[in-house]
Amino acid sequence: MPEKRYLYKYISYIKAGYNLHNKLRLAIIVAFTNYIVLGKVPGSIGKILIGVSNLLSQGVTVTMNRLLYNLVDYTSLYICSPHFEDWAWDYLPVKEGDLFIDIGAHLGKYSLPIARAVGDKGSVIALEANSKNHDCLKNNVGLNNLHYITVLNIAAWSNDENLEFYPGESSGTGSINNKTGGKHCEISGRSLDSLLEEMAVGAPVDWIKIDVEGAELEVLKGAKKILCIDDPKLLVEVTEDNEVEFEHYMHKQNYHYCIIPESIRVGLKYYYCWKNEDLQAL
Question: If we measure between CA atoms, which residue out of 89, 91, 88, 64 comes closest to residue 76?
């Protein structure tokens, strides 16, 4: 039954607490923000429950897949959980020594386990535009002693310029492209080509993961040299408005692509893109 499946997930969220104090906070957060409760209470009550959960989540540490994560709000619990986007790992067979770029790194859901996989012979470059997420991600890197992750508070973009960043209502919804008005801040936008040239990385890029709430085309336009020379494999979340242009751009860059069917089932659309490689190798 679906209820049992969700109950198992909710229990796993609570058990992830680093200590008893964290587990008690997580129990309240899960009780207040599960889909059954939020689906039944009036919207005004739901906002109160979410507000309380966000306050309780600050300072909470969880253990997910033997990695430690500090949280910033209640949604970060669910995003960092191994249940969230679990299908993505079938398309990320990283190996020791790889160079992985994580654009829209959030609190390190991908950056931390991938850093552990590539080891000290590889490296991870994590870009996070939300300053609060960035600071928490840096702390999470230190908590796990993964010091070969470079964490940068910048936005990947088509060129180098200052941009307006809108944090959004939760830690996972910040955006540059989807401007709905309201609170925003200025952030440095950098093209990946110029950024990596400045960093003098000295190794080809093997992987790029992009989750930037509608700005994916701008990111890719700023990575023309990398796409042409390094042929990295890509995992990209693409918004509906960008699908046609995204597929056209991939063709222009001589990339093959496929839509990940598991992502569609949960209301997203992720593409796996590759060059000169048999997809069956996955």
Answer: 64
